[in-house]
User: What shape does this take?
Amino acid sequence: MSNRYLNQKGQSLLELLIAITVFVIVISGIMLLTLTAHITDRQGTERAAATLLAQEGLEAALSIKNKGWKNLTLGDHGLTNVKNIWEFSDSSDQVDKYTRRISVEAGQRDSNGDLVYDGGTVDFDTKKVVSRVNWEFQPGRASEVVIESYLTNWRSVKWLQTTQADFNLGTLMNTEVSGDQVQLARQSGQKVFDWTFDNELEYQYDPAKIKISNSQAQLVGSNTVIYSGQTSNPGFNNNLNSWNYLVWDRQSGEPNFVGAQISSGGNPGGWARVRFVGTASQSYQDGGFFQQQFSVNRDGVTQASLHLDWMVQQIYGVTQPRARLYAFLSTSAGEPVRDSADQVWASDWLTVVSPWTSVDIPVASKLQTPGNYYLKIGVWVEGSTGLNAINIGFDNSWVTWQITEERYPTDGPTIQPTKSFVADDLQQWQFFEEQAKKNGGEIYYQLSDDNGATWQYWNGNRWRQIRNARDYNTATVVNSQLRLFSTSNRRLMFRAFLSSDGTQLISLDNIRVGYLASDGGRYYASGNFVSVAYDTGASAPLYNYLDWTAFVPTSTSLRFQIRTAATQADLASAPWAGPDGTATSFFTEPGQTIFGEAGQRWVQYQVLFGTTDGAITPILHDITIDYEL
Assistant: This one.
């Protein structure tokens, strides 16, 4: 074989290899292009789906915002849709392979009012909403679509108070309006000291005439009888004088009851007897009673009692009778009525002989009105046919009554502290106030600046030492002239005279003295400001948030509450509440959401100021209540 033939054969094999290689490259390129196109198409489809979900998230946030600005709460949220109503739920939601998270952030603006991502001032009427959708395109290959937008509170209506005229319409307690701001008021250098009557060891007094009880110093009273009386002839010893005997509900044909005085066999001595004898042909329900008239000449009976001794001497019957004893107090004469309001006592039913027995019954409630009364004591018997005999006796039967009143010392007993009040920072005495119950009496005072060594009173021109025990003044006079009382010893003590005519209970609850302190005025420790009532003009406004500008240095505090009502009249009694709608919560950070889905037409706020350093105060510059109609 020639070399030429071999060369031709080798060349053909090489050309074949080259052709195969070119074919593989072309086919691979075509396949790669086809796969890449498929991946790209899938990526586009999934990103488009994620973008739609993200856009839907923004639209849902807008829908939630349109139901009320405060519904657009800060934080991460998922979404639910019930009956075509969007709501935030959890921190994300899942749609097939896609996880969606709606983040609501506070909007911020710079000094020019332009929106900035950070470093600005929070704008409570602007919120940044970021809608993120995440999914895995392939295991380990995460994808994300992010869309963001800013939403504004364009339906906002604001009640703003920021000027002196605004704040002057409110109510101040230990606070003041200074320019266009509200702050704690100064105490004008005034301090107070109270003498309270909590500890008897801190006072000097005569315990026989004055006592300290229930944080009061008061006169000691004693019960005195000023009027009394008693019915007549209670013992029936000689006769039935003052008593009348009458039959009780006796019907025709019934046996008769006979009343009589018996000279012996009583408890002791004479006694009054009711006797009854029945025949074999009779049945009966009747009785007899003794009656006495008496008079009570004054109202206000404080104590009264009915005393009665009784016994059953004989009670006999073929068919056993029974008897019952009664006592009545009535304003009219005549037969009593059993179980009526006049009945004050009744025995059990009696069927056997019984010895003398005593009873005492309180009856003051029956004798409250002046006038004539009737004491009635009697026997009621019930029995059937057959021979019967009953003897029942009464003795020592009386009503006593009395009116007692407490009487109090009339010599003006005194009480004073055991030691003076010392005011080291005293500049000037300011006022003297008593809290007392005088009941028509009076309390008089003397003052001392040397721990009680000497005493002074106002003589009409000046404070001078007393010359006799009754050189004293009322609290009104002491108060009006206290500014002129000596400050040289920086001490003050009082001596109080409790002056009564004997019927007047005098009690002293508290003595308060005020003075100007040398360290100058300090702020009150606490106070509050209550705004004027505001009419939103809508029956059910949606309250969004409370905002304010204030200076709150260390050691001070500001707390806020609001209340709402349907009418201005109802607002005054509506409860105050904080952000959770309860009386124990307070708005402490600007922009906090106001409780409730729908409010009431009238609204009002209060601000509670506090300081633990009397040299500084928190200051409120302005306050805003944001709402939607």
In short: Residues 159-186+523-628 form a domain with the Jelly Rolls fold (CATH 2.60.120). The first helix runs from residue 3 to 66. The CA atoms of residues 112 and 120 lie 10 Å apart.
